Amino acid sequence: MAAHPAQHPHVVVHAPALDGSRRVTANDENLGVASHLDDVVELLRLADLDRIEVEDDDIVEWQGGGPEDWPGLSEHHEQ
Fold first, then answer.
1. Predicted local confidence at residue 73, as pLDDT
2. Are 14 and 34 in contact (CB under 8 A)?
3. What distance in Å separates the CA atoms of residue 61 and residue 65, rounded to the nearest whole number?
4. pLDDT (mean) for 52-66
5. Could you give the dihedral angle defined by the CA atoms of residues 11, 14, 24 and 71, in that order, rounded to the nearest 10 degrees?
6. Organism's domain of life (predicted)?
7. Does residue 8 or residue 62 have the better pLDDT?
8. What is the chain written as a DSSP string?
9. Which of these, 6, 45, 58, 72, could form a disulfide with 50 (CB 3.0-4.6 Å)?
10. In sequence order, what are the residues at sequence separation of 6 or more whose Cβ sits closer than 8 angstroms to the Cβ of residue 76?
11. The model's pTM
């Protein structure tokens, strides 16, 4: 049994930039820039990684804050 299934790349949501946006990478490949959690989901979908649960810390590494941390962009947060 493999500890890390091959179908799960190393996805990183990088620390927020000065404008609050966050770069998203998978296995060191740049997927794009997200301004909201929904953007992260869309970037993963476009990269055929839509089966990944973005809030699952075992698969997605959140640097500089978690899925709810979008400093400067909180007006876009809907719940």
1. 57
2. no
3. 10
4. 84
5. 130
6. Bacteria
7. 62
8. --SS-TT---EEEPPP-TTS-EEEEETTEEEEEESSHHHHHHHHHHTT-TTS-TT-TTTEEE-SS-TT--TT-GGG---
9. 45
10. 35, 36, 70
11. 0.78
Structure tokens at 49: 């990684």
As a whole number of angstroms, the distance between CA 46 and CA 41 comes to 9
Q: Return the number of other C-beta atoms located less than 10 Å from residue 71's C-beta.
A: 15
Name which of 15-24, 50-59, 60-69 the model is least confident about.
50-59
Q: What digits encode the pLDDT tens for the residues 16-55?
A: 999 999 999 999 899 999 999 999 999 999 999 878 788 8
CA pseudo-torsion sign 25, 26, 32, 34: negative
